[in-house]
Amino acid sequence: MIAVDTNILIYAHRGETDLHRAATLRLTALAEGVERWALPIFCVTEFMRVVTHRRVFNPPTTVAHAAAFIEGLIAAPSCELLQPGPEFLDLLITSVREADASGNLIFDAQIVALCQEHGVDTILTNDRDFGRFDPVQARRLE
What we know:
Layout: E1 2-4, H1 6-13, H2 20-32, E2 37-40, H3 41-51, H4 63-74, E3 79-82, H5 88-99, H6 105-117, E4 122-124, E5 137-139
């Protein structure tokens, strides 16, 4: 199963981004396909934080529009919303230690731990930092 990172969500949502078309095509293919795919809850909240931020986008996305975008994705029968379960904390600590992660990399480590907990082995992302984490393979949007 593949998970979708925050940056892919932002590219698909914001038409002015360079990778808008590629991200939209990829997300549409996932949402309309039968193969299961995932949205980590941390990516959902980060997406909403970034696209509604006045210092990041001018004009920012409204909360209602950002929520509708996410709700549309989650409504796809093939989409699974990943949320932390009982193994999450142990997996997070292990991911942090194995990648020698600190600071902002802790955010990526939590996504890796969440994916691991749910059996997700690939994340669609253009964030090179995911290469530090062995349990989940990073696949770039082309």
